[in-house]
Write a structure and sequence with these properties.
The chain is mainly β. The chain is 0% helix and 47% strand. It is globular and about 50 Å long.
């Protein structure tokens, strides 16, 4: 079934969610997943690059990031962290690496361990949503992957 939502640029199968791209404050230039699609029992990486807004009232370093995983539309995992979390690698347009989020070009790199080898078959969806403290959407996207193998018997 075709997905009529707007796809993110880059090597991915991700689509904007929560709000259209022109209503999300972080202007995404590229989102790349490696490997694409993710492989069971393997780490995968997400690289996100774009422009952070120049808004004096925005407290960028207190932005939230929610990572959710769904199996057949039922949430099975959720992580709530700050976008400034130390486990997210960040680089600024001046090629400065560090924990702070600044206006201008930003790059984010994060890894995640995909499903264990005994994962149930079905459609898995990963969703990433970041919001400013006032609730405005910095970015939101999701991607789906269908796992066709059967669970391993104990």
């Amino acid at each position: 079934m075709a997905d009529n939502r707007e796809k993110l640029r880059g090597d991915n199968v991700a689509y904007y969610c929560s709000a259209p791209s022109d209503q999300q404050l972080f202007e995404i230039e590229e989102f790349t997943i490696a490997p694409n699609p993710p492989i069971l029992e393997h780490r995968f990486f997400g690289f996100l690059m774009g422009f952070m807004p120049h808004e004096p009232e925005a407290d960028l370093n207190n932005s939230s990031l929610q990572l959710s995983m769904f199996l057949n539309d039922e949430e099975i995992s959720r992580i709530d962290i700050g976008l400034d979390d130390e486990h997210i690698f960040k680089r600024h347009d001046s090629f400065e690496y560090g924990p702070k989020i600044k206006p201008g070009r930003m790059e984010f790199l994060m890894d995640y361990l995909w499903l264990p080898d005994d994962a149930d078959p079905g459609v898995y969806k990963m969703k990433a949503e970041s919001r400013l403290p006032d609730g405005r959407v910095l970015f939101c996207f999701d991607f789906s992957y269908e796992e066709k193998t059967s669970a391993v018997d104990p």
